[in-house]
């Protein structure tokens, strides 16, 4: 793998940085797309297992913008700016999408309400019974953004709530943890002192720290821990713009596969350490395969969720200096929105749309049956 190809991967990872306040690296036009088949925009039927006394009652969430539901600083973070949230609930709610994100779908599967964001815990006391979301857009296992607590700090937040008796051992016994790592560590690595030769050692370092975090969450008393594999970074619009949104970057995805192989080995190792080997404690959600299934328009098990041009985002900046949601000094929009957000798999240069997440969720059914 030559340095030029590795640099392409590095630039793609660095493109993850704008998910909070930065600018997008690419310039693409808007435009409407159409599904060959339609799904309901604001409340798909998600299914879920049969309720029993052993079903999880709470969901605790850690990670980044793929699962964040409102922790980032309001109103500065783009997730709190129009047009984010235009599909659901019709206004920005701190989600990096036009509507729901992965957290919302997993909560629905578990038949609990989407847990309240940690930031709003003091004004939403009635929602504490569903768990809590500690995820911040832009975060990683290591320090990324000043305003985004890393995953270790997020776990500290839960530990403090346990010490304050906000959550008891019984609460944790009937809970599930969701952990997302979408690549921000890699973006910061390239932006600081990263080298092409150091990618594989750094990926190993990231996965090792993630393993430490998973073990720590389990040690707090959470019996089921769901962790996402890395999505195909080479298929994000910030990369596929080079092919006019028609082809993923295979070189970038090779390094993603290295990350995912190491993570798979870590999850297997952690499960081997659990005394009760009759069921998996650590569950790997295969975002890579589920993204690819949706992007390739494979109907089963996706049902009627299909996208005509899945690599093209709905909301984009009008030049390389502007990202989705950015406005000028006089309030003029510096972005365009496609005619039908529900017809696009990607919402912006990095994040899936609500229907994109629904397609991913649909492809994850086999994984979720382990819960």
Descriptive account of the structure:
By secondary structure, this protein is of the alpha/beta class. It has a single domain (3-368), classed as SGNH hydrolase (Rossmann fold, 3-Layer(aba) Sandwich), CATH 3.40.50.1110. The protein is 33% helix and 8% strand. The strands form 2 sheets. Strands 2-3-1-4-5-6 form a 6-stranded parallel β-sheet, sandwiched between helices. A two-stranded antiparallel sheet has the order 7-8. Helix 1 packs across helix 5 (184-191), helix 6 (199-219) packs parallel to helix 8 and helix 9 (287-295) packs across helix 11. The longest helix has 24 residues, at 250-273. It is globular. It starts with a helix and ends with a helix. Keywords: Hydrolase, Lipid degradation, Lipid metabolism, Signal. This is GDSL esterase/lipase At5g03610-like. It comes from Cucurbita moschata.
């Amino acid at each position: 793998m030559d340095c030029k190809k590795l640099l392409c991967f590095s630039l793609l990872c660095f493109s993850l940085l704008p998910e909070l306040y930065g600018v997008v690296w690419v310039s693409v036009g808007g435009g409407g797309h159409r599904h060959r088949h339609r799904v309901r925009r604001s409340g798909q039927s998600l299914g879920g297992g049969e309720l029993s006394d052993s079903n999880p009652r709470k969901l605790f969430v850690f990670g980044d913008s793929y699962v964040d539901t409102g922790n980032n600083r309001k109103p500065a973070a783009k997730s709190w700016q129009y047009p984010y949230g235009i599909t659901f609930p019709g206004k920005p709610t701190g989600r990096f999408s036009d509507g729901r994100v992965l957290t919302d779908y997993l909560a629905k599967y578990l038949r609990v309400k989407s847990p309240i964001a940690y930031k709003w815990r003091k004004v939403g006391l009635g929602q504490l019974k569903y768990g809590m979301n500690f995820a911040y857009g832009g975060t990683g296992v290591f320090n990324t953004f000043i305003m985004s607590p890393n995953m270790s700090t997020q776990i500290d937040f839960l530990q403090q709530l346990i010490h304050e008796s906000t959550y008891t051992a019984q609460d944790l016994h009937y809970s599930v943890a969701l952990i997302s790592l979408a690549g921000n560590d890699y973006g910061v690595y390239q932006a600081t002192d990263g080298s092409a030769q150091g990618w594989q050692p750094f990926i190993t370092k990231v996965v090792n720290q993630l393993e430490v975090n998973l073990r720590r969450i389990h040690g707090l008393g959470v019996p089921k821990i769901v962790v996402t594999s890395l999505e195909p970074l080479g298929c994000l619009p910030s990369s596929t713009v080079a092919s006019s949104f028609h082809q993923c970057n295979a070189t970038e995805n090779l390094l993603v596969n290295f990350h995912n192989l190491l993570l798979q080995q870590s999850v297997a190792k952690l499960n081997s350490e659990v005394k009760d080997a009759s069921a998996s404690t650590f569950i790997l959600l295969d975002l890579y395969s589920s993204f690819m299934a949706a992007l390739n328009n494979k109907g089963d098990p996706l049902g009627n969720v299909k996208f005509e041009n899945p690599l093209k985002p709905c909301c984009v900046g009008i030049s390389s200096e502007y990202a989705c949601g950015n406005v000028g000094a006089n309030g003029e929009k510096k972005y365009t929105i496609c005619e039908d957000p529900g017809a696009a798999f990607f919402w912006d240069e990095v994040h899936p749309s609500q229907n994109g997440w629904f397609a991913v969720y649909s492809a994850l059914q086999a994984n979720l049956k382990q819960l």
